[in-house]
Amino acid sequence: MRVYRPKLYAALWLLGMLGLAWLSLQNLKRDWLETGFLALLPQAEQRPEVANAIDRHNQAVNRKVVWLVGAANAGQASALAETVKTGLAASGLFADLTLQISQQQYRQSYQQLFAYRYQLLDSRTRQSLQQDPQRLVQENLETLYSPLGQLQAANLERDPLLLFSRYFAAQNPLQLNIEHDAVVVHDGPRAWALLIGELPDRDLKLDKLEQLLSLNQTLQHQARQQGGELLATGLPLFTAYGAHSAQQEISTIGIGSTLGVVLLLWLTFRSPRPLLLCCLAVASGLLAAWSLSLQIFPKLHIMTLVFGSSLIGVVVDYALHFFCDGLGLPHWTPRRGLSYVLPGIGFGLLTSLLGYAGLGFSPFPGLREMAVFSALGLVVSWLTVVMLFPVLLARFQPQHQFGMLSLAGYWQRSWPERLNRHRLSLSAAFAVLLIGGLSQLQAQDDVRLLQSAPTAITAADAEIRRLLPIGRDNQFFLVTGANPSEWYQNEQRLLSALAPLREQAKLRQYDAISRHWPDPAQQAADYRLLQTGVYRPDFLQGYMRNLGFEQLAIDNEIRSFAAAAGQTLSLDDWLASANANLRQQWLGCNAEACRSIVSLTGISDLAPLEALAELPGVTWVDHVSQLSELFQRYRQRVTLLLAGVCGLILSILIYRLGWRHGLKVMAVPVLAMLTALATLGWLGELFTLFNLFALLLVLEVAVDYAVFFRMAAASADTIGKRDTTTLAVALSAFTTLLGYGLLATSSTAIVHAFGVTLAAGVGSAFLLAPLIGFNAKPAER
After folding, report:
1. What are the residue boundaries of the structural domains of the chain, listed by start?
2. Model confidence, pTM
3. Where is the chain membrane-spanning (predicted)?
């Protein structure tokens, strides 16, 4: 090195660490942890109105938790649900808990709309009036003389034709049963009471998520003890399970890799100094990654910390090469060691940053966070080795014989020799391994793979959806019109097209604003339909006399109908009486257009629904599919990025080492990455964008290993350098496997596949790298 001032560099490093410590203290004062699954995903690559519709649609479910409390009968189910509600309310987690149906709210909504009863017709009543008014009368008589007639008879005095009763019943298309003032679903001999909770905020802190998870498990146990059953679902529960799993994995990976690194370093060096310095390199890297990342991102996702905890196995590589370089050399100095390892660890850092730079431009917030976090951690760990170690390793001379060094030397000589003796058969087997595995590899781009949940919660979710079809699907329609009238006509055309699809069981249910609220033109048309049909004086008098009404009541009804001529129920007034879900479906009007959402439930066939996007003003929105397509596109782009990074590295290697040696060095990472992919194929593991992220790391460590073996081959002391290089690479590989390889134990499928990719790739690189420069004669530099 031309400028070697270790004390100055150490002082600068110390100042930098003090700055990071100050930033860390500031970060601890803020809410910095993100746990929600949706935070990993990008905003839709759509127009702003579509992104706004997706956000509004998600608001309907993001904060809700749904419970079904099962028992032998409706009374027991309602009573048990009340007990569950009491336990939930005592937790203080929920802004609202709904079990009983508010009679006051029901009456208020009824009274608000009753004044417009002659302008509000449900579609079935409208169809009956258009085809044959007498049919409506006949249906009323059948209802009144049925077992349910007593319930409707109470409405006759104010609503003799039961027009408003029909309309109000249509507001509840699922026809849910109300028993003991609660929504009750009957399923064979069992009854289920519905309880809905709403959180005050879509972003729960980690301690609140743990409380939610524990509370739900406690209540399920209590319900079983009382002979009942409790099913629960909702995005907050999925998030709680995911956060709990991630927290466990952070502990497992972090503790496991740390203990592994400690054990390996102690067995190798038998001295606390290398061990403490490695811990310092790791700690400084993780501290910098955390504190600096929070200056870039408002929050860090818990999955970023899962990946970040595995950095322990990578950042220690720089220190290991430094330590191992001086083993067995009596006159070794930190300056000599740094001058030797700096090109190798510098090149390794460069390859890492090239890979992370590509991921940093990904539209996935989760990937960007992981890339920035990892890059910052590696840079600061590298600087720690380069700037601080020369001072702290001054006059460091180990006082024992390095058994690990002898073992590494024996392995690096015997392993290539054995391969050389059976090179033809091993080459053929390796080719079969690669070709067979790669042929079985299948890309999977479903973004839902990012989230995994235990069988219990997924089974409960499926059972609740079967019993109570109120959960909205991820797909919906966005309906747009230049003005309220055009919007209404566009939505009505869509509903007319959806009706036969429901009859064909293509979907279970749909809901929309215009299904309940007729626009002013339709209200006027409905009034005229009544005027020319059942409200003709002769027709109405005959009908009401047959039901036993006195003439005064008949005259009053005729006057009420005449007085209602010309009145109109505005959309704003109707929304004031609608439930929260319907209100969220109205996106409003601005200078450009009016927009609303048509929600869907129980979709069984997407193709005919997607085809309806051809209707005027209708946009099909499938957020999950759009994100999965985005996932696929960026997997393809990162594949090209990976190829480009390989080409760039090869160019640098050829420039420094020449064609022959450059190609040999590059063969190690290429074969290691192909082996990792083939392993995924043979094992049937997931292959997604995240596996390419893993391959970038395989590229980094494999180039690092190969470059150091090439440097050893070019050293004046080839045999000694190959021994120390083998030890450094072996320690590096084992610590990397302990770090990233432990991700293979993750319960999240996509993280598990990431760990398998790293384990196969790094293991292959470790086996292939010693072949570089084997039997090569010492070369002068």
Report:
1. 1-30+270-400, 403-440+658-780
2. 0.72
3. none
